[in-house]
Sequence to fold (311 residues):
Amino acid sequence: MNAFKTRGRMLAGVIAMTTATRTGPPSFGRILMVATGMLMLELTLAALVSAFCTVTVWAESTDGYGFAVMMLPAVALQASLVVVLAALVLVVPTVLLAMALGAWTGHPPETGPEPWRCVPAAAAPVAVAGVLPVLHAGASAGTAFAVWAALVALIVPAALVARLRRRWLLRGIALWGTVVVAGVAVLGALLLGSGAFGAEQRPPASREQLVGAWTDGRGGTLELAVDGTATARGVRDPSREVPRPDDAERTCTASGVWRYALGAGAADRVVAIGLPGCDDTPWELDGADGRLVLVRWDHEGQRAVELTRVP
Fold:
């Protein structure tokens, strides 16, 4: 009887081992589903970490999370469509190219998954396709390289998992992904609650504190008067549009009006200035440690001009 029990256990182990993996390469549909699930997990973690970083850096600029929670269903639907498209355009071609590279190096798909090194090698050229729209928009080489590196970092984990032939792979992604997301959320909440990461506060400012002369550090000045008039003399005036190679640096010399207003967030403040012939993008209030600065951003989202108070 013991011999039969032992053989039964051995047979059950063999069956479990043979059913733990699939035979043959994964189908196109399975690759797409697994890639979509992995991208969802990666982007959820990135959004969670980004939210914690935003709260840590600018504690007062949060607009409240109630409205964000209410908007989650609509945002989730649109994000799901974008993720499916990204999986179809970026991850699936990477997996197929990695299979081809594996077969070329002596690892045909019938013998099992290709070596993992084939996945980064395949992701590098596929990510170039995602950089082309950025280059077409006129981004700099540094920005294009950063986008390419971010795409490679996004593609590789999803492709590494999508190439596997294990059963219940989607169920495992959902289970362990939920555990990881919940763990990151709890850890972030504990760190924020304990004060381990002190949030940097924007310097408080009133309209009266903005009155006076400001300089861009290159001889240009902007004077804000109590009566709401503004006078610019040679202050740098960047545009949000992509500049042409032969464009000279723009400056503004004009008189107009200014006002202190709300920005995009509930705690954001901007200085809206109307000067004839000059860019009408508001100046954002920024700074730290009680030091006020007025900031303008360029078309790449980088600080283009920073005005400081004239001593």
